[in-house]
Queue: 4 jobs
Job 1
Amino acid sequence: MCEGYGPAVDESGVTSGTIAFPHPTMEHITILWPIEGDTNENAEATVRYRPVGEGTWREGPPLFRAVATTIQAGAWENRFAGSLFGLEPDTEYEVEVTVSDPDGGCAVEATTVRTRAVPAPPDPGNEISATPATVDGVLASAGPGDIVVLEPGTYGEIVVPSDGAEGNPLVLRGTPGAVVQGDVRLDGRSDVIVEGLSIYGKVKFNGGTRIAVVRNRIETTEDGIVTYTRAEDAYIADNVVLGATVWAESSLGVDGDNVGEGIAVTGPGHVIEHNRVAGFRDAISLLEDGAAEDQFSIDILRNDVSVAADDGVEADFCFHDCRVLENRLTNTFVAISSQPSLGGPMYVARNVIYNCSYVAFKLYRESVGDVLWHNTVVKNGDAFAVYSGVPVGRTLSRNNLFLGGPGGTYGGYDSGQGRVLYLPTAYGADLDYDGVGSETGTIENRIGDVVFATFDELVQLSTEQHAVLVDRNVFATPPAYPSDPMMELAPPDLQLAPEGPAVDAGVPLPGYAVGAGAAPDLGAYEVGTPPPTYGPRP
């Protein structure tokens, strides 16, 4: 595949470093390939893959080019990075990656990578009953393959002192009538599953490895499920996590009258999926600044988020390959925060955002490398705006629906005037094939230094050469415009009208969810394809 490419003879050619595939998850494989040279940024990295034993290769998304940069929040080196999407759990894949540069330099790396299996209790396992009086002793003697079953009763704080083993976990399981009035602590543990508990407190797993927290109901006045030190490969799924924050103007923003992180993690390889999280300052979070450790290869998938008085998903300080996909976010101050992305790619795709009172995507603190695909946004004020006043770099946007309208000031924060796109400090932005509309009846936009007063100017003068003009009738059931975002609204059905302007109006994205029609539809939903299950699965 490198025929015709000579060696890199100067700094414009590419020299590749050591490729890595760190922390595969159940559905995704991360690819990281450091490079040197390529000062004119015209090298490319292509990917193909297939399950081992399958004859046909599949095309993966081209890797994202991150240019060595230093910002106030951090620095990164030249690299290609990206993800393979929609894979099967516990499956071996052949992966072949090619980096090539017309100025010289070419390399091919091929290997096999296995996706992770979904954590499961040992089968049959050794069930051991525990009561409030015996639980400490039972857990002290439990180990790999044991299933500690909490009998009905009221338990205080539970500390798990023992580990399971990879592929043979230790399980702490609840039964109806078993209630934990306190925290469940898993600090430093590995290969432990906590399932089916009713907890009035938090689950904390500082420094844990392969911890699974599944199908629990957690009610808390503080945090829900958290690790505040580096952990690896946690699986947090199908939980209901409820906090004490209410939806009110006084709650809004980082300094508002709000409390708690619903789910918060740091470290690589975590999967947070199918949870219902409501009533927190931040519903689902990564950590920030010096507390952020190795935040890459993280999946935040198909969660149902509401009443987040600061951020619905706070995916801040993503080193690369964080994947915020197919979530539903309703009644949030900020829907999805990337403050900042450290070079990218930071994938934000097929999320449904309704009634967001401030910004849909908080690309702040000089965020670089945010990739927005197939999101649906219906909000008060500006549909997609960045107000920070500092540079935001290399944003890539395709196949989204951005709908705004008349705004206002809520909790001291201005939601905007109903502009569709307002990114005054953007550089290197590549936005196209998006559907745009405003309840104001005008299409005002700004990308970098260029201002667009009409839809025609947007198409003629910006990268949005294939934009589509839409309004709320683009949906099969047009939702109410959230004119008062402080009303706590139910999530509407934002599936598309089958004959509307968003159908087949997108561009195919290699390796990611190609549409069933002539081309992909705009927004989070494809006509004829059922929406995902948001929150806990049956």
Note: Residues 14-114 form a domain with the Immunoglobulin-like fold (CATH 2.60.40.10).
Job 2
Amino acid sequence: MTQSLSQGLKRLATKPALLTDLRRGVERETLRVTARGQLAVDPHSPKLGAALTHPLITTDFSESLLEFITPVAATIEETLVTLRDIHRFVHRQLPEQRLWPMSMPCYVPSEGEIPVARYGSSNVGRMKTLYRVGLHHRYGSVMQLIAGAHYNISFSDRLWQQILGTDEPLHSAQRSACYMGLIRNFRRQAWVIPYLFGASPSLCRSFVNLKGSELPFACTPGGTCYLPYATSLRMSDLGYTNRAQARLSVDYNSLPAYLAAIEAAISTPEPTFEAIGVRVDGGYRQLNANILQIENELYAPIRPKRSLKTGETPLSALRRHGIEYVEVRTLDLDPFEPTGINPDALRFIDLLLLDCALAEPRPFAVGELAEASHNFNQVVLYGRDPQLQLTVAGIDRPLRQLLVELCQRLEPLAALMDGVSLDGGYLNALSAQHAKVLDPSLTPSARVLEAILGQDGNNKPLAMRLAENHRHYFLESGYEQLDESGFEQLARQSLAEQAAMDAQPQQPFDEFLEQYYRRAVEPA
């Protein structure tokens, strides 16, 4: 344990109640499918409300890809209570459909048949839709149907002050520097998340053309292709990440440097995307032909975030006010969990992020981010290989040894959290992860692969059985916090809000876009 980490732990131990200052929220994506397991391509149901304006239920890339968003909460259980209630309402409104429980899609129609999400005729709604049209042309629609879970978490200023050992009030730049240090330390050990919680070791043969692939895929007669030791193909080059951003160099050593890199990416033309065209035959194919259309196109395991005020873009909000929270984007859906999220996964991420906050916030040395990215990719492809080694500061070390050391380092934090948290269960959650280190067959990726291979290598029977089980769980249990009438009111209110936005006079869309990008890059 480093001196910085040890000192930080001692300071936390004097005021452990500050650990209750963590605030959390989750975003869970899920595909709608028919009762026969085919992608549901009908429009987003008005019974669920308007995707543009509903605070809890929206869509991601496609009309078929739902996204559930929980409000900020003080505990993991409060977060998951809301998430369970959202599932209950959606299942009651869509009785003929099911929610696909896995991250990787299967049995999807051709690219042109996948419906891009629609958000109405306002300029804001048009921009959201056209951004997705651009994703379709850039990367293909099938890739955009991959689903995951994001975990948002913030630290109070009081907690940061205790970690830093100061009573002085934090200003925006100091707070942002703390979060950027946390982000760098997370990137150094982000590989632990796919090992412990990855649940996408396989994909449908139709999902991607594996011809010429150097990866040792095995394919079953049932149409499933897999890597024997893979943990999260969702997070590999076959999933969310993409080669088009490989040349994008993002500087995480400070928030201004990070913002400058993203500003350059949304302003620098990319020849591959220029070949697509922006306006073709009078219609938009993408928002622009630059490396990134907007900030959200950056695929990263963790991102700095800020709530937006009227007229702000994500970049301008971060530039003016600094970082408010971080978004962890590495969680696969757990198909064995009705909500797709295991509570122990969130408890472990709490501990990991606290560890990242306490550790020395060293800047990335030359080549260190590339090393971290390589380690991450090795784990998503070969994480359960007992011989796998990762590179740390240029030295190869066994994966299992690194995992054991991490679990030991997190134990004092887990004990502190159990002493003050309203949730509790942190030591038990850590123990469950340690068991996966000793026995990789306990990991979700191993369990998923074993279950698929037991179904003649066909993931559809497994996915549909789990989807039916989850559906019955939610239909047979009552609401815990919200209720049917409350959800119906939210749906009506969101529809009215979008209708009002659509009815307002709109400036020419070209001017709207120009103003958006000007705001994104203008100085604070």
Note: The chain is about 45% helix and 10% strand.
Job 3
Amino acid sequence: MDSNLIIKGAKIFDGISSKPRFADIAVSEGKIDKIVENLSQEAAVRSIDASGLWLFPGLMDIHTHEDLEAELDPSLPEVTRHGTTSVIVGNCSIGLAFGNQRVLDCDPIVDCFARVENIPKSVLRKTAEKATWRTPREYLEHLDSLPLAADIAPFLPHSMLRIEVMGMEASISRDPTKSELEKMSSILAEALESGYIGMSTDGLPLHYLANEPNVKKRIPTQYAEFKEYKMLTDVLRNYDRVWQMTPSTDNQGLAARLFMLSSGRIHGKPLKVTALAALDTVNNRLTKYTALLFAKMLNTKFLDGRFRMQALAAPFRIYSEGPISPLAEADPLMRQLIETELENKEKRVEILSDPDFIESFREMWNRGKSGFSANHLRRILKLESEFLTRDLRDMEIFRSPVPTWEGSNMAELYLRYQNWRQNPESIDCEEERYGFDQVGKSVRDDGEFFVSLLRTFDRDLHWNYVAANKDPEVVKKLLLNPGLIPGFNDSGAHVTNMAFFDGNLRALRLAMDESEELVAHMTKRLTSEPAEFFGLPPVCLAVGQSADFLLVDPQELACYDGESTVRYEYRDLFGCHQLVNRSEGLVAGVFKRGKEIWNGSNFTDLSGQKKLGGALRALPS
């Protein structure tokens, strides 16, 4: 058989071997036909000289919300440009398995996604309009019909399952009846039979509904009791499928009980669990150690668990549009601002101008920063429970109505403000003087200065901070820990707040610092290992496997800095701006089923136009 494509001269990291090797690859009918050294000349539609490049299997992203983007742009450009050709969706208990689930004025996709993933409601409504199917099986068939450029493997999302069985209002106001629990279990079993890889739940105290009258209510999954989790995870256990969960950080007792559901010693058969997340957090140094402790304990022979915390390959940098910030939901004061509609600046200004709000914010901001108290001791020991930073030095301005502020941290800005207040002529920049004039001269401390900035500039002031993973060496150790699994990239989520779409490339970059053998091992961690854990078809470069792969320039990888490639781009299909990563020059080509979808600088005509990907179904256990 003549080959459709030949890749010659690349160094191959196949996702299986412990070392790379030089070989040529021939592709026929979308599958790898040959992998041999010095492949003899034969007829081929196309031959690519990849000398000097590295060849990897198409990478996996195990935690995304690309299910939304797939409906608007099936080319999935913000993952495929980075060489990711398989994504897992339906995470965090929310997804599209049941279609839009609209009933009268209830719009669950908008309600559940808008604040959890910080996506404008206008984008979500566009997605909901396309979600016309009704059952999980029909959703898989729908995915198979799209011109996808990557494969999509869905979880059954628990919040949507509760809404389907109980209705929105009941799902957040009462416990399910016995018959409702049985119906949930039955639907889950049917979904697993059709190929779903498992079920997702969520317990983070950050995730709230976005539509009135329920803006003070959390998403439905968080109203489940242990009995409900136990019944549904028993279904997963029977099918040997995966439970994606996020522990309840404000109920550690429940979190520990849920973790123990992985134990085969206690429950007769192990349950595969992947949990968010093993992070080296700035405010609480115990977060990382707790994750490592549970991973080590549950995966012992004695407890016989299958427990994998997810580890992020990048600094956990949070981007915020003024007061709109995903981690700010944990603070009741900031939550008041996020509960407002995005366009309702007037309401936020009203809240931020309230003297009682300002005093409460100053009290929260200064808590534990001085004096002799338990809060002060926790701050010194880095054992705080706050998600949001309370230090202006951590807050870097990304975009601003005053261009000279961009790149500065807010502490530097506050110092210049204090100088301006004493002597306005000390500030040379007229735009900066005007900005400070808008803030006013009544600010008493740095906390009130932050409030004044939010009140004055609202969502036009973009700032960011690193909440975790500042030390690359610690990150690398987490990524390589066998009890953890690389993930938590959140691709397609947090449209205006996070830009972690290149997490796989960053993981390879960290490994490259040490050796090519470690790059080979990291490749396994990003391909064959997660595929096996999630019960999916093999992801590797081997004869007979799907010809999904990417070419990488090792010289570009060696100097790649994913922190410097963040861009704020307008997406026509979304009708809004999005934070993205641009790794130009690094990925020289991306191929799906042997067809090139990214040529190193642009997407090809096939991307998003030809059906190359589809629903990725779990293998029978």
Note: The first strand starts at residue 3 and ends at 12.
Job 4
Amino acid sequence: MFARTSTGKFYRKPFVILLIVLIALVAASVPIAIYSYRNGGTQTAQTNTAMGKCSTLPQITPLNSADIKSGLIYEIMVDRFFEGAPNKSIPANDTAPTDPTHQNWHAYWGGDLQGITDKIPYLAGMGVSAIWITPIVENITQPAYGDQAGYHGYWAQDDYQIDPHFGTWSDFDTLVQTAHSHGIQVIVDFAANHSNPRNTGADGAIYKNGVLQASYGNDPNNWFHHTQNQQSDSLYQQEYGTLEDLSDFAQENPAVDAYLKGAILQFSQHGADGFRFDSVKSMPGPTGGWLKTVSDAIEAKKPSYLVGEWYLTGGTGAVTYSEAAQFANSSGMAILNFPIDTALRDVYGVGLSSPNEINSTLQQEYKDFLWPNDLPNFIDNHDMARFLSLNSSHTSLNEALTAMMTIPGIPIVYYGTEQYLVNNNNSGEDPYNRPMMPGFSTTTQAYHLISCLAALRRANPALAYGNYAPIKITHDVYLFERQFGQSVVVTAINSSADTTHSFTNLQTALPAGSYTDVLGGLQGGSALQVGAQGMINSVALQPNEIAVWQYTAPDGQTPLLGSAAPELTHPGDTMILDGQGFGASGTVQIGGVSAKIIQWSTNSVSVTVPQIPGGLTTAKICNSAGCSGAYSVNIASAAQVPVNFTLNGLPTLTSSDHVYITGNVAELGNNSLDITKALGPMVTPDTGNVQFLLASLPACASIQYRYFIEHADGSYTMQSGSAQTYTVPCSGEGAITDNWQGK
């Protein structure tokens, strides 16, 4: 998220001192089991004496820029990772604090793009398939709040230039090329909500290639929202309020829209494979507005993985959870899975609850999200205390990592976790959750654990595309499985430090046979015997035991479709379908219409989205043996253009009354009065009776639309008279101002 003098995050500190169980590191002289996996066969053990070497698994699932479900993301705070170019060319007028001694936690410490490039082989060895780098655009060139620099990247001053503390565009190009040569994608963090702090430092000033566009205190063309800091969770405060004194962009301004999209697409042109967007809930029209037009603009250039930070302070019952789910289902962006982060930290970090909190969160997300396997999971990041600040036990960290990497969703490892990086000053909160990377050992238990599970994610499609089912959950034990077709992964975690838990007559989808722990007994995992019809007659989990067992099925004749990405496309865009058993050739249907094949392989097919009506529909893939099941896809009616609706003259509304817009295109709900399909709710300032909403509409379309008020009891009041009409501009932004018709 943003950076500030103190985080103000809401994570609880442990009120019980957890017992730290010391476990012996596996010495180089002790054999570690590695496994030879035969498609369709029983697992057999070999031995190897080198710590960190897992079995060589067949990479049967692809990894492309639209579908990274089988991957592992590694988050890097660029300034704190590694300095590869110590003699940087910093302009004389750049007075932002620097400290090569690493004593001033608010200064630049030297990490740069060259440093990441230098360590790409280290990351590849850990199984990393995508790196998320914090923002690298030019940040403010003078200190703010006394002695603070924009070392974190979230205080942008020029979104078109690379910050010289990090390098140059040439350095970014080299990073992308090097990462791609090792099978690693590059996800760029971009802060489109704001520039930099107002009333301090650069006063929000924003430049384009060195040319001043506006500042917060000199803003004649309304580049910024001049509002108070967010005071509540009201939609207006959320979308138009100022976030922590950061100068808030007015995305409804066509100049701002063009500026931000141009900067984002510049990264795409330089090879970025995806984007992480900061503070998405704080931008206008989050559930279907400006950011949807951003997604569409990016995907029109090339398929990319997009994710937004929708910060939730609790689980699935949090105030904005329903809006977050709606955003993820409609915007073309996944969202960072804060509810799962909360659950993992509660269970393994502070011991506040049983693994049932994780299970119930997943079960709820399966109901609310269209693509739960797209949601990135994490146990910490740059905005919260590291996991090891909550619980210093490496054993507990291993348990949390194993759960995170095998439940539904895409795992994110925060830089240094594999090296047990932690600083507990101020309970590990910002900025002490951002120490310098201490080293690059490939022999730590965490590095070994992560590399094993990353390899398994690439080899077994159950972790990328599979469903989820609990097998046994107690206060200490989390035993669950993932399944895709006949491929299965079973995870068992016993978090008790002193109790062995034994179970009988458990049911699994694993075929009958003997299965050895994928982790090579790293944390006590032993063999699992499965009988006929998937019956586990007995299993005993020793204290703090972790075991992962797997079966990778051979390709069948009928296609299994596990992914269709990106999450938002429009006719003419490229869509990539991934799964298993596609064969040598076949057909793809999207919305019941045949799509033109661009590329075909047994596990991945690229097509051109056909000319079909917009809306939520399905894709399926067929070959001579049959067709896959249907996979949900979101199709925009056409290229998307932001249009700002303003509605005046409304009757007096209560706090429970909400205004929506419905119309004759999918983006307006196809004339539905269902508030989950219509566009809205519109927002209103804390004073006044005007309502407005920044919508995403199909370019060049002639639309007919109407407003209606939804009341607390579920009834509604429709505007009187005929529907309004409007022709959406073919580019840029549009604006509509109406008066309410009726009483």
Note: Residues 560-635 form a domain with the Immunoglobulin-like fold (CATH 2.60.40.10).
